[in-house]
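Predict both folds.
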Amino acid sequence: MKRFLSASQVRLLDRAHKATKDKGRADRIKVILAVNEGFNHGDIALMLRLDDSTTRRYVDDFEKKGIIVHDQHIGKPGKLTKEQEEELRSHVRENLYASADEVVAYVSRTYGKKYSQRGMEKLLKRLGFVFKKTDIVPGKADREKQQAFITAYNQLKDNLGPEDRIYFVDAAHPHHNTRPGYAWIYQGERKEVASNTGRERVNLNGAVALPTGHHHTFELIVEDEPTINDEAMIRLIEQIKEVQPRGKIYLIEDNARYNHSYVMQAYIEQQERVEIIFLPAYSPNLNPIERLWKFYYEKVVQHEYYQTIQEFRGATHTFFTCLTQTMGDELTSRLTDNFQIIGV
């Protein structure tokens, strides 16, 4: 193997080896120095009374993280320069690669450097990448309109009166059926959860106000409706008005057809305290109540079996009735207006 340590690095490691009283650290340094001199792992392991796998692990750790001696970091130089690694980081962040082999081919074409699949996986991890699923977002999401909404929302929030409040509104339609999810399951075993054959569902119409301005707590209203239409929306607004008898009420909601109906428009025209603000199309990321629905599915629907629709409806009502008292910390971390813009 070609030497990878400079003369000054060898001297630093020699001095560190003589100074250390840690046998494990001393062995690591000796392995690195021996590999640098061209000895093979079998001979090194025999001389140091170590396993061959241990010497290889020491070198692997050195390649990934290097070693610090006398406040200096010594690392095995990679095939790419630091500038090339930064270029590769930027390129992979901007382009989608489904396998390390695809990146291997790109690096070979671009820099003339050969990597194995395992070597590229190590490099990508060192550059900050992880292998995970992509996120599906609406293809018609408009990033500029989302940014304009966020700007207008922040201005509104900064200028709220003492009694004013912003409510995020949305509906959900959970089916009376078990939803599978991820769990820790012993290798080779299965975990089965009972399911239902029916397609009954609960229609939830909800509004949530985040802690803002002079208000330091959440306000949550969730109604179980026969169906979600303009009449259900009017009932929800009337309930919000009862909860907040003074001040302006800003309702942020999506572009569902019933939110634009003639009945709804006529109702809103008569409301001095209520103003509706519509979200940009295809932007569920801008509505925190969507996170509330996801939280509900995780706690009530996922992995849970309810024999009857009445049991399912009862568990749903209990969850929302006790939510702010029993899950305050989790709720605070989930429901925020730290919006992320989506779209391609």
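Second protein follows, with its predicted structure tokens after the sequence.
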Amino acid sequence: MSSTQQVLAAGPSTLNRPRRRSWHPHLPGVELTWAIAFIVPYAAVLVAFAIYPLVYGLWMASSPSLYLTLFASDEYRDAVVSTMLYVGIGVNTSLFFALLLSGFFMRRSRWVKAMLVVSMLPWALPAQTGFISFHWMLVYWGFLNSVLEKLFGIYGPDWLTHYWLALGANVVASTWKTMPFWTLILLAGRMAIPQDLYEAADIDGATGFRRFVHLVVPLLANLYLVCTLLSAIWMIGDFNTVDLVSGGAPVGSTDVLATLGVEYLFDHGKPELGVAAVMAALPVIVALGILLIRRLQTRDVQL
């Protein structure tokens, strides 16, 4: 019996039964609605918290006379030097020790894993609490000098009244706070290296330091550079560390551009000059951001 005869034999109920419409997932109206629903909130947040503050800041600091005033100021020149030292020393110190610690945490012992968890605590703790503790430990009658006097009979200096000691305190506090994060990133990069390469290096006799130099360093070089660029961008805009640890002491000599801009804004009542002091670092941040994006597009990043 043909298919036509089977349908006719089934009776009129089969002929009159309406066909079920199949839902098509690619309706233009539905796609447009979902696209708007997902894009609009992100676009609003981007405009409200990124584009608008940047454009408004550029408008406030658009007068060339502001930069002439800044460049003629000793405070600004000292802040530029302190920012370069703080960022240059802090970034390299934090990343170097993070690279070494990532190798230590590659061990599979249980106590090493427990130490890894403990080492993450500085990153998890609130920054304000930790940096205020650093400040009170470094004052003349603070914890550090008390320990030096009781254990070694040494009368420690007033750490925050000497430029290099105060700058070093800022670097140490920043390293203490950020190093656990970079350690975790570099540890993930090390774990992404195939185990076959380690075994091949062992067969070739490259163990210990030679394996680190000829295997780990080349494979982590791009990731290390990406972390360095990102850390530099963060530290250029870092306000909490310098403000809470040294407070710009002695006599504002360890102020960085972020803290100097806030001082111009609140202490001197010159918001345009404060914004100009911060915006003066924008070309450096943009250049670092472009370089960072270009490095992220390479295929050699181990994650």
